[in-house]
Structures are given as C-alpha cells and as structure tokens.
C-alpha cells in the first residue's frame, strides 16, 4: 500500500484501475477517512461484478460514505467539484500522510459528471430508478443505495398524499378556538401564529409546526388536540373519541413531551369529558412502531398499520429519512400527522433532513386563498393570500415568538443572532451585559474549562453523597451539562469526560474514574427494546439499597425509576460531556458549551444554535475564541437528497 506504487498505477492510465482503487480505499479506511463499511461495500460489489469499472465502485463507496455524513445520496457534480469534501478530509496542511496517500481528486481528475453518470447507467449494479433489485439507483446525477432511494420515495409518496384535499371543519369550532386562544390576545405576537397553526391543522392530514425553544409548540398542539377531540365527540355523540398518540424520537424527548403536555393540559379550558380523552404519555417512535431485537423491521408496517387516528411527533428534526419512511408506511392513510420541531436545529444523526426540507421555503410564502378564508372565518385572522404558494404552504406554520427567552435573555439573543448568521449581532449580545450568558476565555482555557465543569457538577455530587434517592438524583441530572462540538481531542467529549472524571476522583466525589463507579452518568447508544431502553436515554450508576448496595444503573422511564445491571448495558458511554448532536431533544438548566480552539468544518450555524438552545437558564461558552464562532456562523449544513428537490417542485394539480 505504498504511495510510490500508487502513483505508478495512476500515471499508467487516465482511466482508474480497480487495483489502484482498492489500494486507495484501504488507505482511506486506515486513515479513518472512510468507514470500513464503505470500503467493504465497494469490494462486495466488485465480487458480484468482475467487470465493474473502478469509477462505479468508487461512486458506490462514496455514496455509502455520504450516508455516514447525513447525505441521502452522492451528488456527482458536487463530488467532482470538491472531491476532498466528500471524504470530509481535514485541512491538508495538518495532514502529514497526504503526500504519499492518493486523494479522491487523483481518481476523479478528468472525469465529468455526464461521463460518470453514463458509466454508472451502463453498469448492471445500477438502475435508473423504478423497481428493481440493483444495489444502486441513479436518478439524474444523484446516486443512491437502493434502500435509501426507496425510503425517499416512500416519504415523498406518503407525505404527498397528505397534501391538499382539506378536511371539513365545523364552524362550531370557532367559539372554542376563540376561547382557547383568548389569552394570547394579550401578547404582542401578531398575527397569533399559534392560533394560525391550530386553525390550519384542523383542516389538514399533515401539519408541521416549527419553532424555537419555548415558542409554544406543545401549548398549541394540546389546544389543537382538545379541539379535534371536541369535534369528534360531538360528531359521534360522545361515542367515539379520536385515538391519539404522542411520540418522539428518543426516550428523553418522549419524557419531556409527556411532561410539557401535562403542563399544557393543566391550564386548558375544555370540558372535563374532552380533557379525559387526551393522551398524557408519549412513546419513543421505536416503541410505537414495535422495534424488534436484531432486525430493522418493525412490528407495524403497511400490512399491519398502527391503530390510531392522530399522531403527534415531537422533535421531528431528529427523525431520519428511514425512520420517517417506516413511520409513514405504518400510519393509516386517514390518520392525521402533526410534526413538531425546530427547523433550525441540527438534522438527524442518520441520513436525511426531512423536517428542514419541508420547512425550507415556509418563511417566504403565505397561505393559499382557501386557507386564508378559513383563517378569517374561523379564527378571525386576516392574512393576505398567496395564490402562488406551494401546496405544502398551508401545512407549515412557524411559531416565531419565544415565551421562554424574553428581551432580557442573552441565550435568546445569541440564538437569534446565530440563526441569522449575524456575526455583529452575536458579538453585540456578548457585550450587552446579559446576566444569563458567560464566555470563558482566558490564557489557560483548558484548565479553566475543567475547573468550570467541576464547579458545575459539584452540587450534584454533594446531593449524591448526602444520600439522595435515585429518583431525586435522576431529577437533578438536567441541572448542569457540558456539551462539546467535537468527539475527539482535548476539546472533545472523549478528552473532557476523562478529565472531568479524573477531577471528580481527585476531589473525592467518585471512587474510581474508570469502569463502573457510583456516580457515573451514562447515555445509552443503541436501542434495546428488550431492556426497554433507547438510544439517548440517560441513567446514572448508584448503589442499590434493594440489592445489598450493589451497583445498578438507574433510569427515569415512563413507568417510574428502573434499575439495570451494569453488565446488561453493552452500548453506553459516559456523559459528563456529550456532543451537541447527542444533546438534541434534551434541555438543561445550565449548559457549558465547549468549542474547539481552532475553526473546524464540523462547526456549523445549526450546531452552534442547537448547543446554545439546550440551555434553559444559563449558558457558559468555553474554549474557542470569537473567530471560531464567527466562522461557524457562516457555515450551513447542506444535506444532499432528492427530497428537497421534490419539496421545491411541488405544484397544485391542474384542473
Ligand atoms: N401564547 C402564550 N402566551 C404566554 N405563554 C405561553 C404562550 N404559549 C406558550 N406559553 C408558555 O411558554 C412556555 C413554553 O411553551 P411550550 O412548552 O408550549 O413551548 P415549546 O415550543 O413546546 O417548548 P420546547 O422548546 O420546550 O419544546 C410554557 O411555559 C407555556 O406555558
């Protein structure tokens, strides 16, 4: 696998040789530029097609690799324009081996998109859309692994079927609608977007309500459920209530949704009979769909659909393309779907950005004349119609006013500046003297970050030492949390977790900074339906009074506190510090957000926004200086898919 040999292979012919490609794949895999899975996929295809040209196999490896970076497909022109970006290579000056290691540029030089697409189209490994069994599907200049092409088709088909064709809305709902939103008149939010969302949702089988933290998504959806239930009970003379289910992508998000729904219900002005039929408990999507161990298949699917009339999915930005496809396939055609989320947050860890794509044009469009008419008649809300809007427009509402972050909130000001990519406003927010934000910048930042993290956790460990019960301890887990932008390095979760554990051990709060110890907070990293634990669930190891003080890991679940043997948790990691990606769906009273010292392509506007908005009351920003944040604010996450194109091309059917 020497660089010298490789250069010879490349120079020998402008066309790629398979041997040279396999050699390079091995290099890229060894350097961590490519996942073993991606290189393996190309080798697997080569075994099945002894004549597959190298550029087809390279495209297959890159398409697989793109999935790991959140892209649903490989977009050929984009790969040709910036081949190193496809492998997300670190900046080359930091990367010593590159002089001897072939780069993707070497392979793609001289190739144009049309030729590459033509080679792919000729290959028996590739079909150009439509049903089939080829492992790869080429649509125009986008190359998919078949599974993802199928998921994209399913999502577009099912969502498309829910657009247009508005449902009838009883005019009698005008009165309860006015009553439920009467208090909103006092706020200066005009129009009342919460009321708009609720009114439009009454006539829709698909509604997307996007808003930042505390903009009233849960409040709005609770009122909507009450109205729909009022309508259903009235229509059936109290006989048939809607079967409503609440769900979220992670256990943590489901628990939060259950909690906020309960809060929103307590202030709800509806008849007791209606209130009694509203759901209180949210499930994880995996549990709702019936995840089974060791298989990607769910118990519910098109042939065995979910038995419900209405589904609310919170934190929908976290739902990846495949899970969305599975969910839509299992949802009865007639059921209503309401997606809640924040379009500006990071997209799902897995491939796709369904919520972001659905909301992409929402702020630039108004509503159709028919929707404006309903808003006027039912909600007493006048809006200028937009006859040129997309058929999706009437299904999407942005809530714009945060009831959590007011004008005195530095967190709110930073979040807004970040979303706008406004570096000047971001800087001004730091100098405006807000009491809830602090920037830890000093000459010895690493030591200061460690000290601040230990100070943040001390109170928690004091309670633990004072013998707080597992339930009490679990309730305080969200008081303070360190978030990192990166996984590796001194500023990443791995380095910080080790240093925080060592610091707590030095101070005598924990007995051992390695392995399992009392006080170790952990996050589950893989769904385990048998244990009833899901990716993202957070627990803490504590001596169990009911098991002779032996160590157990305690989790707060919908059914109460659960104790699990540490040895049964084979996929979990310590979370004194967690990545911003993993923190999605959670909020903490005080967040310490640690940025790396130097700018990094991983830092994007969405990542900074998500990190900042995990803090409810206090934010400490640490590490990287102003230039690091400012460069992040100018970088946006772009996820390649055909779904965004589908959304952009949506048109009303012609009469
Ligand atoms: N129109 C309103 N007027 C006054 N307070 C409101 C209004 N809407 C929501 N709130 C309050 O704002 C807070 C946040 O509301 P809610 O939980 O519905 O927002 P959310 O968008 O779901 O928040 P999260 O970011 O937690 O998901 C709650 O305390 C709620 O009572």
From TrEMBL:
GO terms for molecular function: exodeoxyribonuclease V activity. This is RecBCD enzyme subunit RecD. Its EC number is 5.6.2.3. InterPro entries: Coronavir_polyprotein_1ab (IPR050534), P-loop_NTPase (IPR027417), RecD (IPR006344), RecD_N (IPR049550), RecD_N_sf (IPR041851), UvrD-like_helicase_C (IPR027785). A helicase/nuclease that prepares dsDNA breaks (DSB) for recombinational DNA repair. Binds to DSBs and unwinds DNA via a highly rapid and processive ATP-dependent bidirectional helicase activity. Unwinds dsDNA until it encounters a Chi (crossover hotspot instigator) sequence from the 3' direction. Cuts ssDNA a few nucleotides 3' to the Chi site. The properties and activities of the enzyme are changed at Chi. The Chi-altered holoenzyme produces a long 3'-ssDNA overhang and facilitates RecA-binding to the ssDNA for homologous DNA recombination and repair. The keyword DNA repair applies. Residues 31-144 form the RecBCD enzyme subunit RecD N-terminal domain. Residues 575-621 form the UvrD-like helicase C-terminal domain. Heterotrimer of RecB, RecC and RecD. All subunits contribute to DNA-binding. It comes from the Bacteria. It comes from Chromohalobacter canadensis. Keywords: ATP-binding, DNA damage, DNA repair, DNA-binding, Exonuclease, Helicase, Hydrolase, Isomerase, Nuclease, Nucleotide-binding. In the RecBCD complex, RecB has a slow 3'-5' helicase, an exonuclease activity and loads RecA onto ssDNA, RecD has a fast 5'-3' helicase activity, while RecC stimulates the ATPase and processivity of the RecB helicase and contributes to recognition of the Chi site. ATP binds at residues 211-218. PANTHER family: DNA HELICASE B (PTHR43788:SF6), DNA2/NAM7 HELICASE FAMILY MEMBER (PTHR43788). The lineage of its organism: Bacteria, Pseudomonadati, Pseudomonadota, Gammaproteobacteria, Oceanospirillales. The keyword Magnesium does not apply. Gene3D superfamilies: P-loop containing nucleotide triphosphate hydrolases (3.40.50.300), RecBCD complex, subunit RecD, N-terminal domain (1.10.10.1020). It holds the Pfam family AAA_19. Belongs to the RecD family. It catalyses: ATP + H2O = ADP + phosphate + H(+). NCBIfam families: recD.
